[in-house]
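Known limitations

Files may contain more than one protein. Parsers should not assume a single record per file. Below, a two-record file is shown to illustrate correct handling: read the sequence, read the token line, then continue until end of file.
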Amino acid sequence: MRSKAELESAIAGGGRAVLVINSRSRRGRRLYGTARRLLRESGVEFLHVFPVTDPTRLRDLFADVLALEPDLVVVGGGDGTVAEAVGHLAHRDIALGVLPLGTTNNFARSLELPLDLPGAVRTLAVGRPGAGKVADVDVGWFESTGDPQGAGPGADREHIFANMVSLGLSVQVAENVPHALKRFVGRPAYALTAARLLPRHEAFTARVTIDGETRELATHQLNIANGAHHSGQRIARDASPDDRLLAVYRLGDERRLRLASATARHVLTGQWRSLSEDAFLTTARVEIETDPPMRVDVDGEIRGRTPVSIRLRGNALRVIVPQAFLDT
């Protein structure tokens, strides 16, 4: 593995770069041509461009990407596209660059990337004025029961996640949010879908074990975050994908109105809250059980059911971030 400085120098010197862009994402189709033009004008050249019209092919496509032995893989799309890339690029001598073209762009926000396309492209033009740098950030790793993936060669990578594991209402929201609504209204589509589903959602009790101590939490929603954002909103002012911590927190208790009020508080005060507050449990490893077993949402994809074990892998992913990003 090269040092971060060596990899950054290789990229700045015209290293091997590949572009993967999801033209089915909320903004991908509309901005594909603009993104190509801005990248070209910024001096970022690519060995190969993979426009993705069928997201189900992403996993197979990355075999072709890695065969090119790139120094930099730029991924344009939403959190699902980025999450797929993270699993393939973690623990490799390759930097991930992100063009945030999705609905919530949680991972891009956690990396403190500009969400406007010109700003994101400017960050990727490593070695040029106003450009970003190579940093290494944490990823998560999970193992759930009955996961339909994660077996056979390369199985370990299929357990890596970028941003969040969650249980509860968000699983139903992920399955039921209308794509057309996401396309037209963006992030509010998730809140509108949650409001529609909440009156019929049943609370659950989770047994959360950290360092041998088990706590029981009654709630409608439990999150385990590696990143700093959920639903496009900051979790806490000091949360970061580079802090060597998983943040475990629930939204409200077993009362439905508490979930609504806790979600509103999260939206309004997340940027001022701290991970040191009682609302959060921070750890590098957590085990979660529920009775009955519940489905597990991993970066927006259903991946088995509880019990689930979640661990942190520190500094496992190299990314292009703004110069101001604190790289620890």
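...continuing to the second record:
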Amino acid sequence: MNVIDKLNNSYRENRIYYFMVLIFFCVGIALGAFMVKYMNINDSTDLSNYFSSFTESILVSQVESTKLFLNILIKISITVVIIIILGFTVFGIPFILLIDLIKGFTLGYTFTFLLTTFNGKGIWLAIVSILPQNIFYIPSFIALSIISIEFSATKLRYKFFNKGTINTIVKKELIFKIGVLVCIFITGVFIESYICPNLMKFIVSKIT
């Protein structure tokens, strides 16, 4: 069975989990965009001033990419570990979905705010500062959430209904999947730390 067949089988068997995760993530994005649109004028001004100062500092200061890499890696690792731990609990599903909602909210809020801050020109800054790393982050977070929800649901069925067991093969596949996702996350962190700052500096110089 090739990779495509495995993905198709996984989707058919866990369709409800895919639906739940995507719904919560998309609702989070919508709420984030909504929050920016109806944000208090004082808060909007403060954020705009802060971000303007941040973009100006990009042009005159050197980004410490290694330090940035470690900070982002720690932040991502905390979220990943929490999702994995929740997957090993019986009642982890609602908390995993809440994390997906928050991640979607953060993404929607940040992207919409950048779009509105520079009156249209912000789309380029939003693209170079958010899109490159999230090409890796978003699918990985969604996949990790689905895997953890599936694992948590299996433990729930086994504990309360004596249905479904987790054999050694499944555990090995789980470890392999998480290992692959961790590598993808690290790739995203590398891009966010070493590539995005240079792209942002280029775009900011053109905007200003």
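Parsers that stop after the first record will miss the second one. For reference, the second record is described as follows. The two ends are 54 Å apart (CA to CA).
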